[in-house]
Amino acid sequence: MRYLITGAKGQLGRELQCRLQGQEFLATDIDSMDITNQAETLRVITTYNPDIVIHGAAYTNVDNAEANPDLAYQVNAIGTQNIAAACLKCDAKMVYVSTDYVFDGTLGRLYNEFDQTNPQSIYGKSKLAGEILAKQIVNKLFITRTAWLYGDGDNFVRTMLKLGKEYDELKVVNDQYGCPTSTVDLAEAILHLAQTEHYGTYHTACTGTTTWYDFANKIFELAGYEVKVLPQTTAELGRPAPRPAYSSMDNLMLRLTVGKVMRSWEEALQDYILSNQG
Fold it and tell me: Which long-range contacts (CB under 8 A, 24 or more apart) does 160-167 make?
């Protein structure tokens, strides 16, 4: 089985490379394959001729996307279209990593794969556009929506651990609910799915739901830091891009098709902190 990874320098890309050691894979990023360049993308992918393409490359700066919508759509929509066309050309399975931001956050319960999408931010809209374009082109497609990702790279957990060493009091948003997800768990779910022919849309987030405020408190508790966390509203933070207030997801299709149950966010976080402090 030959894999091709896009966004290989990102958190998920790094984890996938670790998990694929000993197997055939090509790790690509913008310096080796610009996904917004159709000809280049087609050349690189068809030359390698992979069985599975895991498309993790994306424009993920949620706030900057509001000021640069064309760039966000160029990467997240057109880039995904180019990947899909190349997958079709070499009859490869495609995994497109999407996001909880495709929802508006007003449902008031866990979102499953059959709930209506309604993104509010340019980032969410451009990622949903990528989903739509990929579905129009590729039949052998897995769409894997995830959320609040952390792994090897810059992320909320590492930021909190860094700030927790410098300050004894921090303000953290307490009115956004989601599913913190470790790249370890996401990579495992993606590779598990990719071995099957259960094509479709999947929610692939660690189980359970929390706020950024409670997430931060759990990080400090597990790390043994004495930091006072003060609740803050999204409005008080004043970010340019709207965030879904409640975007926690139910991995319904993952359970129903392949019987895969992802770990709780607390268990995954505990392992991550132990490995980062060791």
Answer: 160/216, 160/219, 160/220, 161/219, 161/223, 161/225, 161/273, 161/276, 163/227, 164/219, 164/220, 164/223, 164/225, 164/227, 165/225, 167/227
How far CA 249 is from CA of 102, 111, 206, in Å, comes to 11, 5, 9
Closest alpha carbon to 98 in 41, 147, 37: 147
pLDDT of residue 276: 82
Has residue 17 been placed in a domain?
yes
Provide the number of structural domains found in the chain. 1
Q: Return the CATH number at 52.
A: 3.40.50.720
Across the chain, mean pLDDT equals 97
Residue 160 falls within a domain, yes or no? no
C-alpha to C-alpha distance for 99 and 92, rounded to whole angstroms: 22
Give a yes or no: residue 124 inside a domain. Answer: yes
What's the CA gap between 217 and 268, in Å, rounded? 15
DSSP per residue, 101-144:
GGS-S-SSS-B-TTSPP---SHHHHHHHHHHHHHHHH-SSEEEE
Q: Which structural domain range is residue 73 located in?
A: 2-155+181-208+248-263
Question: Is the residue at 225 inside a domain?
Answer: no
* pLDDT tens track for 114-162: 999 999 999 999 999 999 999 999 999 999 999 999 999 999 999 999 9
Q: Is the pLDDT of residue 179 over 60?
A: yes
Name the amino acid, one letter, at 251: N
Residues labelled as active-site residues: 123
Share of the chain above pLDDT 90, in %: 98
